[in-house]
TrEMBL record:
The chain crosses the membrane at residues 65-86, 113-138, 158-185, 192-214, 234-251, 272-290, 321-338, 350-370, 382-405, 412-433. Its main location: membrane. It comes from the Bacteria. This is Chloride channel protein. Pfam families: CBS, Voltage_CLC. It comes from Kordia aestuariivivens. It is found in: Membrane.
Length: 592
């Protein structure tokens, strides 16, 4: 920033500190973040729709001959841009934000503000089977983090504003402000307090207003409930809840299985070629896998499954309802495969909308099968509830799923089946998989932020902040006299690490170990450190242990000090008193 501009900005910050309270300034920033997220969502949608409209003419002109290779072209464009222009690799949107919240106090790199706005529309616009919501959230969150950095906002408020950005992006895309707020609370583990709720409300409302301003009354799904919920349908919704739970487990496990397969490829270009060919084959047999799939969902809600399925190799047999059911089951199975293949091949996008597409197909299948056995249930209602059930299971966000569908349909007439199906799906999935596609890596390392305040505070604490290094090191070959004169007499600590010539920790000595004979001069030259030292009760491994495991080691060992090893060498000590003091301070700041 030029000196003159910097000076003006500094004067503005000083004026702000004098005239605008922190609380009101957060409200202002939350509105700004909401507007930014709304603009990001509108921009990413419009760029994608423009690419799709342009390619529709190419597809028609080529008589559908290019239809199945367009995703490969999109992946190739993303690969070339990433490799030669941006030189930054796209990341899973929500996962990267959760990592930033957990390990970087909400600091997000600048390139994440604009990279998703380019790579995601290219991926989805050319037919990649992923969604736009994740990239919109990622870009909005990066903008929010950098706005916070610009105005010197503290880490706790920065994390809240990132949640505001996520709420804003969802509110703008779905025009569902309540579900957007709940998503930020459920997925980002924000505290639901008045302090956090008002900024989330302001961001969500300002984002949806931005969407209305640029897109008018256009919605992803223009659907109104016609058939009311019937009490007699409850057993079928229970069955749907169980079905969406197993589909959610399949969706998650398939994602990680395919990702593992692609990790075997050493070169990214090989991943692109293999993934592109696989997507092309899937699109040939199941055309609705092309792109996000929102048109597929709309057609199902309109009761037009033939239009939803598009042109398939078995068009001559789609008058048979069981053929249609089999095709819809194929979409349910292969949407997860197509989505993960797009990611693994180098594409950029999100999983939220593919989850909805898969859930809509499953819900529609369940309704069709039920109706074939002589019952009469609403296929549109089951399509909607199926979407909610899969969101609840795959993302572990049941409240988001319930309120999203309720807002999409413009009412709460499906509230009972939504609650029933989502609760069953979430409970079964949560018991089988204690993580989601978003959270697996952080969950396995114990670094995931949760609604448990104690665990969250420990996760946010940095190990470096409690490591002390002002200990006098001694060598095992030292005599007692040398140790007393060169270490004990000159140190303010009562603990001494014993290290060898290569800085390996071979033991420790505490003053209590030598207190009884430290003044016996007859032992000064005959007793060695090697004879007195002992092993530490436990060791903290710098590269491996997080604060939760450190706290557990103190609890299990009953020690007051534990040594830290870094690269298998002595690095310092952590004391229980300093750890608890830092924990209490962090807890006060977090809950303030």
């Amino acid at each position: 920033m030029p000196t003159q501009k910097k000076s003006r900005f500094t004067r503005f910050l000083i004026w702000r500190y004098k005239h605008i309270s922190n609380k009101n300034f957060i409200f202002i920033l939350s509105i700004l973040v909401g507007l930014s997220s709304g603009l990001v969502a509108v921009t990413i949608k419009n760029i994608t729709f423009y690419i799709q409209a342009l390619l529709e003419n190419v597809i028609i002109f080529s008589k559908n001959q290019l239809y199945f290779i367009l995703p490969v072209v999109g992946l190739l464009l993303v690969y070339l841009l990433v490799k030669f222009v941006f030189k930054k690799q796209p990341e899973h949107a929500i996962s990267s934000i959760l990592y930033a919240l957990s390990k970087r106090t909400g600091i997000i790199a600048n390139h994440k503000m604009y990279l998703p706005l380019i790579t995601a529309p290219l991926t989805v616009g050319f037919g990649g089977s992923v969604g736009l919501l994740g990239p919109a959230v990622a870009s909005g969150s990066a903008i929010s983090a950098n706005i916070s950095k610009l105005f010197h906002i503290n880490s706790k408020t920065r994390m809240l504003l990132i949640g505001c950005a996520a709420a804003g992006a969802i509110s703008s895309i779905f025009k569902s402000p309540i579900a957007a707020i709940i998503f930020a609370i459920e997925v980002f583990s924000l505290d639901l307090t008045l302090t956090s709720l008002i900024p989330l409300l302001l961001a969500s409302v300002s984002a949806v207003v931005t969407s209305y301003f640029f897109l008018g009354n256009e919605n992803l799904f223009n659907f109104k409930l016609i058939e009311q919920f019937q009490l007699s349908d409850i057993p079928f919704y229970i069955a749907l809840g169980i079905g969406t739970a197993f589909a959610s487990i399949y969706f998650t496990k398939m994602h990680f299985a395919i990702t593992k397969v692609f990790e075997r490829f050493k070169r990214k270009l090989h991943k692109l070629i293999f993934g592109g060919l696989a997507i092309g084959v899937m699109l040939y047999f199941i055309p609705p896998l092309y792109g996000e799939g929102l048109g597929f969902v709309t057609s199902l809600l309109d009761g037009n499954h033939i239009e939803a399925l598009g042109k398939t190799p078995v068009d001559n047999y789609t008058e048979n309802i069981w053929v249609v059911i089999i095709l819809l089951i194929g979409i349910t199975i292969f949407k997860a495969i197509a989505m993960t293949t797009t990611f693994a091949a180098g594409g950029s996008g999100g999983i939220f909308i593919p989850t909805m597409v898969m859930g809509s197909a499953l819900g529609n299948v369940v309704a069709k099968v039920i109706n074939q056995f002589g019952f009469n249930v609403s296929e549109a209602n089951f399509t909607l509830v199926g979407m909610a059930g899969l969101i609840a299971g795959v993302i572990h966000a049941p409240l988001t799923a319930i309120f999203l569908i309720a807002e999409i349909t413009g009412g709460y007439d499906l509230f009972i089946p939504l609650m029933l199906t989502c609760a069953i799906s979430f409970l079964i999935t949560k018991n089988v998989l204690n993580y989601t596609i978003y959270t697996r890596e952080l969950s396995e390392t114990g670094e995931l932020l949760t609604h448990n305040k104690d665990e969250t505070v420990l996760t946010l604490m940095a190990l470096d902040s409690v490591i002390e290094q002002n200990f006098t090191k001694i060598q095992p070959e030292m005599t007692l006299g040398t140790m007393l004169h060169e270490a004990v007499a000159k140190s303010s600590r009562n603990l001494f690490p014993v290290v060898d010539e290569e800085e390996n920790l071979v033991g420790i000595i505490v003053l209590d170990d030598i207190r009884e004979f430290m003044f016996d001069t007859s032992l000064y030259d005959s007793l060695y450190v090697d004879d007195i030292m002992h092993n530490a009760p436990d060791y903290i491994i710098y590269e491996k242990d997080n604060m939760k495991s450190v706290m557990k080691k103190f609890q299990d060992s009953s020690a007051w000090n534990l040594p830290v090893l870094k690269d298998e060498k002595y690095y310092g000590f952590v004391s229980k008193s300093k750890l608890l003091t830092a924990y209490r301070r962090k807890l006060i700041n977090f809950t303030r």
